[in-house]
Every structure is written in C-alpha cells, then in structure tokens.
C-alpha cells in the first residue's frame, strides 16, 4: 500500500477550529514538519479539508 508524505507549508493558526483539529490529528506540529499517512479514503478526505495548508507527495 502506498503512503502519503504530508508537509505543513502554512500555519494552522487563525484557521477554522475544524481545520486546526485535523492538522493536530495528523500529527503536524510546525510549518515544514511532515508525517507519513496511509493512502486511504479517510486520509484523503481529511487532507481535502486542509489542502490549502499542506503539500502531499506519494511515497512507495
């Protein structure tokens, strides 16, 4: 199964509470921090909500 490398490129400060919770739940702490997430429907749905704050790359 492929994984997604998710990098926070914009701060979550001053964003909607739902967006801040998603960033926190993903494990992203600071700008330029990254996490590996499984490539599934639930992850992609959450990433869609914060697409303007992140950069996503596929890792095999």
UniProtKB/TrEMBL annotation:
Name the UniProt record assigns to this protein: Large ribosomal subunit protein uL30
Q: Which UniProt keywords apply?
A: Ribonucleoprotein, Ribosomal protein
Q: Indicate yes or no for the key word Transmembrane.
A: no
Q: Extract the NCBIfam families matched here.
A: rpmD_bact
Does the UniProt entry include the keyword Glycoprotein?
A: no
Which GO MF term does the entry hold, naming one?
structural constituent of ribosome
Q: Name one GO biological process term.
A: translation
Residue intervals of the Large ribosomal subunit protein uL30-like ferredoxin-like fold domain: 4-54
Please, which domain of life does this record's source organism belong to? Bacteria
Cited InterPro entries: Ribo_uL30_ferredoxin-like_sf (IPR036919), Ribosomal_uL30_bac-type (IPR005996), Ribosomal_uL30_ferredoxin-like (IPR016082)
> Cross-referenced CDD domains, in alphabetical order?
Ribosomal_L30
**GO cellular component terms?**
large ribosomal subunit
Q: Which HAMAP family match?
A: Ribosomal_uL30_B
């Amino acid at each position: 199964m492929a994984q997604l490398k998710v990098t926070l490129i914009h701060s979550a400060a001053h964003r909607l509470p739902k967006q801040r919770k998603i960033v926190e739940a993903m494990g992203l702490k600071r700008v330029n921090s990254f996490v590996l997430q499984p490539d599934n429907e639930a992850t992609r749905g959450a990433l869609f909500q914060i697409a303007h704050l992140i950069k996503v790359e596929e890792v095999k």
